[in-house]
Amino acid sequence: MALVEVRKVTKTFKKGEHEITPLREVGLEVEQGDFVSLMGSSGSGKSTLLNLIAGIDRPTAGEVWVNGQDITKLSRTQLAHWRAANAGYVFQTHNLIPVLTAWENVEMPLLLLPLSAAERRKRVGIALEAVGLSDRADHYPRQLSGGQEQRVGIARAIVANPTVVVADEPTGDLDAETTEQILQLLVRLNRELKTTLLMVTHDPHAASVAHRRLRLEKGQLVEAMAC
Amino acid sequence: MLKFAPYIMKSLWRHRARTVLTVSGTAVALFVFAFIGAAERGLADMTRGQQAERTLIVFQANRFCPSTSRLPQDYEVTIRKVPGVADVLPMQVYVNNCRASLDLVLFHGLPAERLPAWRELRLLQGNRDEFDTRSDAALVGEAVARRRGLKPGQRFTIGDITVTVVGTFAAATPAEENVLYTHLEFLQRARGNRLNEATLFEVRLQDAAEPEQVARSIDELFREDRVPTDTRPKGVFQASVVGDLIELIGWANYLGYACLGLVLSLVATTAVMAVQDRVREHAVLQAIGFSSPRIFGMVLSEGILICLVGGMLGVGTALMVLWWSQLAVGTEGVTIALGPSWWLLFQGLAISLLIGVLAGITPAWRAATAEIVTALRAE
User: Fold this and answer.
1) Angle at A103 between CA A89 and CA A175, to 5 degrees
2) What pTM does this model have?
3) Domain containing A33: what range?
4) Residue A25, domain CATH
5) Is the Cβ pair B289, A56 closer than 8 Å?
6) Nearest to B291 among A51, A81, A91 (CB)
7) Which helix (H) or strand (E) holds B125?
8) How many helices (H) and strands (E) does chain B have?
9) How many Å apart are CA A92 and CA A173, to the nearest integer?
10) pLDDT digits (tens, 9 = 90+) for A204-221
11) Size of interface A-B (CB pairs under 8 A)
12) Which of A164, A163, A204 is nearest to A183 (CA)?
């Protein structure tokens, strides 16, 4: 069984009087250690699919299995506990807690797990080192550049050693040079830590660093051609 | 939840001006509430309890201020014979001001040798024996002593009365600590050589006696005598004397409740603003694994913390002022002590906690139940 299995997932939204169905009976399998990129036009449902896999949204129909568990059957609170242990989320930008230092931001997900203070310290140290920001641990988000903020966000997403890490346009707000640094960081994490990664992007270049490139078109997933 | 304390504290500190203003507003309101609570408690202490119900006060009929009540001292012998009476204490009362006052000085003159049997006093300073042997001696209640800066050995004059302070005492009830005890005869002489007159009689009842019935019997005895009497249980007597003050305190209670309403609205506004400011932040926390109950608890904690800090500041300051000033509001020789108490502290903190919960519950619920995806899109 694949690590992530999306089975006949449909998602319907109400927008005013209209009903929108960005995902229609979508199926997807992601193996352990895969790096998958998802592309598609705006409103194609790629972020919606990512949110369903990360357990922060629920499908209208269908199932999402992660590591042998159907997460669509979990209650709201159970799903929160599942996210804490199994899902890492990298946001587009500006999603660090502004009143916390880089270290404290990265530590937040660990506070939800039964870990000792010493274990937390060790894991945060490793995560910050992995993203090359050990020397910025005491800095607040406002004292970091956009790229550094995003690296802290990545450290926060991987610190609990989750089953799957999802990234929603992680380079969407960054300049070309910083984008390259973040992409190389994601590649390295996938290669060295065997982190399973799903990344939504508009950018064909960003998508090209993944092992698999998928496109969402008219509510359906199709394999994208290599650049 | 303690693990999240740094985040909660830093979140409050993020909008420090707003937090400080809310805490200050809470403190001021709880300060007023504690003061009103102290007056209410002083009143309750005065009108309730064994002594208030099982001790009668015999006063001259149709008189209010102690200086106008003049009962023949030989009434004591007659009162002793009334069925149900266990003991009788003649007392001369002198008060520096018959009107409502915050600095009432109240002299109680009674037979020195009978003081231990009638009053449970704990000597704090001075010499109890000197009180028995010295005719102008005065034992001074702790509240008056602190308010007036009196110490053993000092001479103290008020109006045409000068006494020598031989000791200070603490008593079972705070109102008692606003009294200066002197010899009965000393006070009688000082007030114009009225050696055969007493302001009032305190009557202690036998266990089985019915207070109302004994009171009626006493008044019946003196109805046609030289001076008719008005006898009532001590609590009822004191409550009737300070009737106007009771009404004022009753009105002040509404002011206290209004203060609590103000705090509720103040803290609720702050909590709502704090949640509105952080819709996206709470969504991020939920996305990384924070459950709805945990978000609920964290937001609620912020409201509770503001209220508790404000409550501690306000109630704590009020208690310190009450302790330091030993205030007593009184009229016509009866005082209501405004003293600090553990109960006031407990009540103030419990109310702060309750207001914190009430103020934070709706914003916390909104933060906890927000849809993550929708909230992540919020600006």
Assistant:
1) 55
2) 0.76
3) 4-95+163-223
4) 3.40.50.300
5) no
6) A81
7) strand B121-126
8) 15, 14
9) 7
10) 999 999 999 999 887 788
11) 68
12) A204
